[in-house]
Amino acid sequence: MVDKQNFIEKIRFYRNKLGMTQAELAEKMHVSFQAISSWECGNTLPDLDNLCELSSVLGVPVDTLLRNQNFSDEQSFIGIDGGGTSTEFALFTNKGRILKCFKLPGTNASNVGVSYVLSIFCQGIDCCLSTGRPVKGIFMGCAGGLLDEVYKKLSEIYPDIPIHIDSDGVNALLSADGDAAMICGTGMVFFRHEPNGSYKKFAGWGHEFGDYGSAYNYGREAICAARAYEDGVKLSSLIYSIMKENLGAQTIKAGTNELKDVSEIAGKAYIIFEAYKQNDPYAEEIIHSEMKRLARVVQSVCPKGGRIIACGGINQHYGNITLPILKQYVSENTEFILPALPPIYGACRAACRYFDIPTDEGFFKTFSSDYRKITF
Known about the structure:
By secondary structure, this protein is α/β, with parallel strands linked by helices. It has helices spanning 4-17, 22-29, 33-41, 48-58, 62-66, 109-112, 114-129, 147-157, 168-173, 215-230, 237-247, 252-256, 262-266, 269-277, 281-301, 313-327, 343-354, 361-371, and strands at residues 76-82, 86-93, 98-105, 135-142, 163-167, 180-184, 188-193, 199-202, 306-311, 334-337. The strands form two sheets. A five-stranded mixed beta sheet has the order 3-2-1-4-5, with helices on both faces. The chain has a five-stranded mixed beta sheet with strand order 8-7-6-9-10. Helix 2 crosses helix 3, helix 7 (114-129) crosses helix 8 and helix 10 (215-230) packs antiparallel against helix 15. The two termini are 37 Å apart.
């Protein structure tokens, strides 16, 4: 027999997961809003045809909708991966089910300031709380500094929810099984597990001082090469052409003079890799130069080699190019691991750790299955 309350909760859960209102679900199913409302209130149940249509629209098998599965004993948490380019939020349960997941702009307070960062965090947390599910705790793994100030303000705004805040390195370290984590995103930083259960940070000096292998470095090199070519220093006509097409400006100088934000410059990193794929020798030179300098940090972090989790946008999108080159300049015992899930998974595991909740293979499988259904 179908458990009516269980069925009601499932409709609400999968509808909210897709970000649909009752009216939007009704429109997609070609039924009235009143019909959806009646199902979710438990006044009536859909007939067989509507049940099949409901299954199709929600992207969930009929037997999943009908199977008795008690969601009420699951606790909800919020995991946050605050990067320099984007910030990912996940409302999830102790069983690994993702109730809501989305991205907002970057939240590196060192770059954009505490006030702006707080506005983004509050927007994301409020969106998670809008589902109506009680949240037992929040873990935030954030890039940049000023974390104490961010924590103090958020604790005042959400006094009833325990909040833990730490570096985004924690997210990376818990995203897979490794000895250390190498984040090459907008910036670059390393974190290594220590024997006492803590972690140690390496590098992460900031874009002004050389975040080797970072998107900012590649973006800056692309801009420099294009501006040099425009001024007659012919380093790479291909990088110049791609940059010109990207900017759509009359001159490279006019287009790049407007690039003031760190993330805007980092956004030009793809130009180096696009040129590399087209066998541009100068692009290859830039990547090798970045990897040689990055290798010095790797050797300091893991002098005898080890398993290094490779996170961040550069590793995620271009690791097939950068990591084999980096491998040439480090210890032969060094292994680079591309995690199956992004750092938001590590943030959610960190949230569970703070509340002594195990994250076993079942947690990973459920989280992984749910995450792969999400489209941003």
